[in-house]
């Protein structure tokens, strides 16, 4: 009797809570797919007309909910990513958060989901078709036969055989993939239990999960990516381009220009298309991606095409037999390709979706290559697991998933190639069951670098893929001692990979390794600069330069003409250290870094160095410029934040400190560094953190003789021929 009374009271409490949530949700202006009625259907299965419409539309984008009653969920190959357990009251509260958050996002951007007369004239949106609808329009079939889906093999018997690479081999079928991941998962569970943690919850082994608590079956891991090699610079009088790692390999950024228009990613995630016209700036178009819950990371510009890389996540809900609800999150990346021949009316040409967290991307010719990190969820039963990533509309085939001899990390690195001339299709995709720490992409090959933490981080494993016309072909693998500073530590030249590393035993030492096309070490110089660590590196043809640091900054120059017999040419010791090196015209090397006290090691400010490299065996620091009021420079670790053109004798950087500013310099052999222009972000009266954020993501570009400073809420145009006098200002907030 008491039990029935308790249940009745619980039901009344739940009803009261649901009513409060409903009333709160009614106050928010929300998209139809996030309406209260649709949320009820997703949670409790209650039929509503709007719910039916939402289900038929296959809503699953970032911030929305998707039913798990699908073939994908049943097969267990993919679906949920990170599970969280809530009982009904917790699920209802979570729905309220999603509803209000979705409404806040829409209202924050000042947008509506309708296409009515209230839509801003310049606002361009595009409705996303489902993968099936896109395939139907092309007359293709996205489904696979039952036999193919089971073994993950190709439907095309003539498909070329995928080669093995040292230490990794393609999986024979999906069962083999699951077995390898399950084995690793069990070994990790045993290790966690041995340490006193419950493998299922991540908490103490003796603690039990109580009602309403959260289950998180997969921990999150952070990944850093970096990059290398001088870019081809625009000639003087033209326009600047993104400062990239490798000549001929483009990289995405938050600002692009084609010499007539500026393409600017604003704080809301929209891309503004602005007519530059020698400083007479006018916004003539705007692109907002279909899913407002996604975050645009960067963009690529290719004549009349603009490609946006956006990351997002889908929230999935599943009801368990015990009345609890499992909330799951799928992370993904979308590549949107727009035709911008008519700048005032961009048209969405295609979308490619790839599972996983965004890592980086590159563009070579007509192809964009996406790198994501997919985190599988391994359950006791294969059919309940989510372990096969998708690239485009299909699961990656088992034969394109590479397994190491012994799985050390269950995460996947997923790489795909997309032809922007056919922007709804994936040309090729490969996956490695392995994490990645750095990515270096030359004009011919992709090099994936992984620290081997099992050996205490003392070796770096490198996997090489050849890529061409969207195809990604496993080529070779190798390893070297030590770890790399970033991928400026790597460079490919005439088929040889040159790499500098730092190792730690009793003390730090550094080394140079040269690997042949098969990734075998053919030459090495070890035990360099004991007690110091590599801070930066740059290679140019047959000469390489790298900086190590302890209390002073030795700049080493290396003769690499004979790849089997490299020679240290010289060693220049100067105060401080350079974190970024860039070749600046003939026989000059620019260093951007930090000045330090040679005795105490105290940081004294941001330092510019210009090295004379006319004699690589006797490199000289020709001039230095120390800015003591600044203690940080984003260009030291994000080279895309550096505007540089030695042909125009111009480079620009943002600096951060008590005051934050954007600075433009030129260089003269007689006068040294010349500060041509300075704009202090706190000049508008911003607080410190506002000026910091504006400086951090600022970009400087030029078109002809007009310089444009672009930051979070404005674009300023300056006449470089008239002492950088301001021409105009355009608000973009």
From TrEMBL:
Residues 1-28 form a coiled coil. Keywords: Coiled coil, Membrane, Transmembrane, Transmembrane helix. The chain crosses the membrane at residues 85-104. Residues 44-64, 111-171, 225-244 are annotated as: Disordered. The keyword Transmembrane applies. The keyword Cell wall biogenesis/degradation does not apply. InterPro entries: Beta_propeller_containing. Residues 133-146 have a biased composition (Low complexity). Residues 154-164 have a biased composition (Acidic residues). Residues 44-55 have a biased composition (Basic and acidic residues). Pfam families: Beta_propel (PF09826). This is Secreted protein with C-terminal beta-propeller domain. It comes from Murimonas intestini.
